[in-house]
Amino acid sequence: MGWLGYWVITIICRTIRWESQGDKYLEQIYAAGSRAIFTFWHGRIFPATWYWRNRGIIVMASMNLDGEAMTHCIQRHGYSAVRGSSSRGGLKALSAMVKEIQQGRDAAFTIDGPRGPRHVAKVGPVILARKTGAAISCFHVSMKHKIQLNSWDGFQIPIPFTRAIVLKAPPIWVPPNASEDKMRQIHMRMQQVLEELCEQGDHWWN
After folding, report:
1. Which of 54, 96, 133, 180 has a CB 3.0–4.6 Å from the CB of 78, allowing a cystine?
2. Using alpha carbons only, what angle is made at residue 73 by residues 100 and 139, rounded to the nearest 5 degrees?
3. Is the N-terminal amide bond of 176 cis, ω within 30° of 0?
4. How far apart are CA 98 and CA 85, in angstroms?
5. From CA 42, how far away is CA 86, in angstroms rounded?
6. What is the pLDDT, as a whole number, of residue 81?
7. For the chain, which residues make up each domain, given as ranges?
8. Would you tell me how many other CB atoms lie within 10 Å of the CB of residue 124?
């Protein structure tokens, strides 16, 4: 499944006409000497895997068979993976991601994965940002023509030769001494930003 996923993503995404908005926000993160913690919805894994390929980004993959197949696929696209999820092995995986970020790598989360609910952001990136000083970088991929599966995440597969826009939001910073109340506020802000990006993307091609 890993090789199959790799080739399907590669063949289709090579035909896409890509655009991006908000690149300056990522440049701001790097100019500050920090790293990015990318957050996005699980249903956009297909195009996002191609867009951010070959950057050495560290991602969290679930411990089940789906996670194993995904790990093999993304590794071939130049990512590294730690195994864990919100329900199994998550703390160990977060600790591994902390070390990777401290060594100068970016990280990424499918923020409502691995099993949903759809478009409900988990708190992992906020915890990771507080521990590392890295900035949360929310983004959304919108495709003009796609197939949407009847799955919990509304998984989308682009139609070959379609257009796609990657919308990037301003960075969200988490103070190292953030209180639990502050963490909740930032978590809510991250949820709001992701929803706004999704809404913007949904209307992009109208």
Report:
1. 54
2. 60
3. no
4. 15
5. 14
6. 86
7. 21-47+87-202
8. 22
For residues 70 and 73, give the distance between their C-alpha atoms in angstroms, rounded to a whole number.
5
The rounded distance, in Å, linking the Cα atoms of 89 and 8 is 29
Tell me how crowded residue 14 is: count the other CB atoms within 10 A of its CB: 10
On whether the CB atoms of residues 23 and 167 are closer than 8 A, the answer is no
Which residue in 108, 133, 129 sits closest to 41, CA to CA?
Answer: 108
Alpha-carbon gap, residue 62 to 135, rounded angstroms: 23
Give me 159's structure tokens. 């139609």
Q: What is the pLDDT of residues 44-102, one digit of tens each?
A: 999 999 999 999 999 987 655 466 777 888 999 999 988 765 555 567 888 899 999 99
Instruction: Specify whether the backbone of 116 is left (phi greater than 0), alpha (psi in -120 to 50) or beta.
Output: left
